[in-house]
Every structure is written in C-alpha cells, then in structure tokens.
Amino acid sequence: MTVKSAVLIAGPTASGKSALALEVAARTNGVVINADSMQVYRDLRVITARPTDAEMNRAPHRLYGHIGAEEVYSAGRWLREAEAEIASARSNGKLAVVIGGTGLYFSVLLQGLSAVPEVPSEVRQQVRDLGDKTDNEALHAMLAARDPRTASALRVSDRQRVLRALEVVEATGRGLAEWREEPGVPVLNAGDYQAIFLETEREALGRRIDARFDSMLAQGALDEVKALQARQLDPRMPALKAHGVPALIRYMNGGMTREEAAAEGKRDTRQYSKRQETWFRNQLPEFRWVKPEDALTSLGRA
User: Fold this and answer.
1) Whole-angstrom Cα distance, residue 173 to residue 150?
2) Which tens digit of pLDDT belongs to each residue from 268-281?
3) Which domains does the chain have, with CATH numbers?
4) CA 148 to each of CA 64, 137, 141, 174: distance values in angstroms, whole numbers, following the listed order
5) pTM of the predicted model as reported, rounded to 2 decimal places
C-alpha cells in the first residue's frame, strides 16, 4: 500500500472504521490515533466499543482511554495531543492513522483552531450555574440575543455547545462565530494526508448499530455504567452523556425497562450517525466518500 504521511479515516458509528484503521496500520507500520471524543475516557471501554487489548496489540494505539470521566476533554486539548502523536509517528518513521467519528476533531486538525481566549473559571461557573436552573429553549434564546450567528448554527437541544458559546460571549464580549473567523494553523496541509469517510447504506448501518449495542450489553456495558454511576460525578460531565449511558442509568434507577433503555440507546446512536454524515458533508470537503468494502483499495490508489 502506497500512502502519504498520514491517513485519516472517518465515518458514522459502527461503520467499520476501527477495523479498517487497524488493517491499514498493520500493513504500513502505522500508529492508530483516536479521534473519537468518547473513546478517550477510560471509564467507557465497552459502551464506546473501544478497541480490545488483542486489537491494540496488533499496532500501537494512542489517545484511547487516557482521561478520567471526571474531566472535560476539549477539541483544543485533543488537537495538542494529536499533533504531538502525529509528530512522534513521523519522527519514528511510522504512518499516523487518525480514526474516529468526531467531526470537530478533524476540522481543527485540517483547518486549525481559532484563538478563542481561555474563559475565566468564575465566568464558566456562573454560566454553568445558570444552566442548572434554565431549560434548553431559554438558554438558546439567551444565546440568540447576544450571539445570533452562533445560535443559528446550534440546535436548541445541543446544551453543552450552547453553554460553551454563552461562556465565550460573557467572558469576551465577542461571539464564538466571530472568534472562529480568525484563521488557525492546520496541523496537516494538503498533500500531507489522505482522508476518507466510510459511506454506509443507512438501513444496513442501522442494523449494525442495533447489533453492536446488543453485543455491548452482553459484554458488560451495564456493569460499566453502574460503576460510572457509583462515582457520583457531576451529571454535566460529557462522559455521562455517551450514547446509551443516560438510558442505562435511567433503567438502573427504575425509570424504564432494560428493553426500553436498549431501544433508546440504539435510537440515539442512529440519530447521531445521521448528524455525523451531515457534518462531514458540510464541513469537511477534504474527505473522499468511499464504500467500506472499497476503502483499502482506494487508499492504495491515492
């Protein structure tokens, strides 16, 4: 296989990205670098379908399970860590195989991260306290009044990003959309990499999502979520919002049956897969869309 200095593999959840990345790394002396915002959490190995120990033994894997669920992991932190891993792979003569489904991570990798100033902790706490007593619609309306451009790009239900945008405008007086107009510096430039997105037929993908969720339950996802719940973390922590986690917590608290929790987890994951495809189509034209069965051949030709 002839490749450039980095290969980027993206696609909706359950599309076969991890298996493809491992095969590419095994064939090319590569290092697999995670670009999934939930697989960074060590507490969520099963429920996020993180690579197994056997898979990780086939090729080096980086940025998997290295963060505790008590932490908030940002795109900026991922970019710094991913840049270091890509540089390390290059210096050691290895191919960087960056794989995941978090579109924002790939965006900052290829387009750079705008220099949004650090939000003071007291401002962040004020906004989070406001969020504790305000519903999604009201929060979105507050953002629309102060930063209409950013608000227009965010779903009302996207509570975390709405709160983040409110933090920025409160701390700086400028909207997040305005800050993001200032160009960042890409880690990878055109010609440095190949980038593919696995295009999967929707009905088949839905069946794979359902089967994978059932498999995760059989492999101990419920015990994993039970252990996470026992830590009594702030419910706003991103790890507690991983697909399937909220529904399984409600099941354990008696709010729904196991079957209802599984159905909700599957439904949320299918909806997320649609949003992943929309993001990559609209935000990342650098990616070539290929059928999973054609991916290896496609990479070999590029």
Assistant:
1) 13
2) 999 999 999 999 99
3) 6-114+185-200+285-301 (3.40.50.300), 121-179 (1.10.20.140), 204-274 (1.10.287.890)
4) 36, 14, 9, 11
5) 0.83
